[in-house]
Design goal:
single chain, little secondary structure, four-stranded mixed beta sheet, 4 helices, 6 strands
């Protein structure tokens, strides 16, 4: 994995609102072909064929972000949720946002490198020593315990502001919420790892795009640095957000 910079924080409602209010990420104003291309993966940028997967316009996008009557974080107008992680975002919208914001969606290899602490191969992003399996609600937002209630007693109040468990739950390079808070979209389609891997990404179409990191409502096992998941790129979920990667 060549040098890169992974955003310290998940994208918040407030940051995503700037994108929406700029009219971006819709069929009316999609990314240009090639935008958001990974610097070591030619052909990984925006494909104009994806435009039809976007909402028709800004109003339609704002409505679509209201994907859950209970757990959505988006509000049509700015309010108390601006520091919460954005949810209900399709992979295509996350891709479009990172391109607009001057970066790219991290490859699974990049995301994993940050979560595992590189060669340390940490069990959890905060594990030090790397084999330490210590976890509780002071390290991460998970298992519906964000509001201090019992495990699996879920409510909207279990979704907390980004970096609420920082610095205790940070990874080696200070990224917050690599374990818990929200699953995070990666660039890759979900497939077996390429081996050997040199700045690789799975770009051949499969059934789902990679999500990593676990979320506010899942158990401790999903927060392991090595844990993987997948979701349809056109799907919206109240437990999936994202962050971007950039040149160092």
């Amino acid at each position: 994995v060549s040098d890169f910079r992974l955003d310290r924080f998940e994208v918040t409602v407030g940051r995503f609102r700037a994108f929406v209010e700029a009219g971006k990420g819709t069929q009316a104003d999609p990314p240009a072909a090639g935008d958001g291309e990974h610097p070591f993966n030619p052909g990984s940028g925006w494909d104009a064929a994806w435009n039809t997967s976007l909402a028709a316009n800004t109003g339609a996008l704002s409505s679509a972000l209201l994907c859950s009557s209970t757990y959505q974080t988006w509000t049509p107008t700015a309010g108390a949720n601006e520091h919460l992680p954005i949810t209900c975002v399709m992979w295509y919208e996350a891709m479009a946002f990172c391109a607009w914001d001057g970066g790219w969606l991290p490859t699974e290899a990049e995301w994993n490198y940050a979560a595992a602490g590189g060669a340390e191969q940490r069990y959890y992003p905060w594990s030090s020593p790397a084999t330490d399996t210590t976890i509780d609600g002071t390290y991460a937002v998970y298992d519906c315990m964000g509001d201090g209630s019992a495990s699996e007693d879920c409510s909207f109040n279990d979704i907390l502001s980004v970096s609420s468990r920082s610095p205790k739950g940070d990874g080696l390079w200070a990224q917050a919420d690599l374990g818990g808070s929200m699953w995070e979209w990666n660039l890759d389609w979900y497939d077996i790892y390429t081996n050997p891997c040199n700045n690789c990404a799975n770009l051949s179409s499969a059934s789902g795009r990679v999500v990593r990191g676990g979320r506010w409502g899942t158990g401790a096992d999903s927060l392991r640095a090595a844990n993987r998941g997948s979701f349809s790129p056109t799907g919206r979920h109240d437990g999936i957000g994202f962050r971007c990667a950039r040149t160092p």
